Amino acid sequence: MGIVNFDPNDSILLVDAEVEGLIKGEVRNLRMVLDTGSSSTIIPWDVAMSLGYDPAKSASRKRLITGSGIEFAPEIRVRAFSSLGQRIESFDVLCHDLPEESRVDGLLGLSFLRYFDPSIRFSRGEIELRPKERGNG
User: Would residue 105 count as lying in a domain?
Assistant: First the structure.
């Protein structure tokens, strides 16, 4: 548990994340947008490929609503995913490339946040993820 600071005046909430590859210890650092409107956490195809994953061979595709329409993105399970001071092992992410103009690598969505009890305090510019209390799923 910890507190991560952000600029409450920015138009987006930027967070750092880390994805672990198929070979333990091999990681890629990502700059992501915390997006409570996204049900899934999304990483770029090239990051997945560079870590030894092959999204094209994924048997699972999830519906993804984008600004340009509906697409189906491959879902892969990464060895581990970390952000906001928390780590989840064996975590499912979607592989999809965001527009280059977005200048971020991906989206940190509800699929990550629902593992925790998050607090976002805009008045202080703080995000905190606490472990869920027992009995809260």
Answer: yes
Taking only the tens place, the pLDDT of each residue in 36-55 is 999 999 999 999 999 999 99
Q: Would 136 be classed as within a structural domain?
A: no
pLDDT in tens, 55-71: 999 999 999 887 778 88
Write out the residue range of the structural domain in which residue 119 sits: 3-131
The answer for residues whose C-beta is within 8 angstroms of residue 133's C-beta and 6 or more apart is 117
Q: Are 44 and 97 in contact (CB under 8 A)?
A: yes
Burial of 64 (0-12, 13-18, 19+ CB in 10 A): middle
Residues 88, 93, 97, 102: is their CA dihedral positive or negative? negative
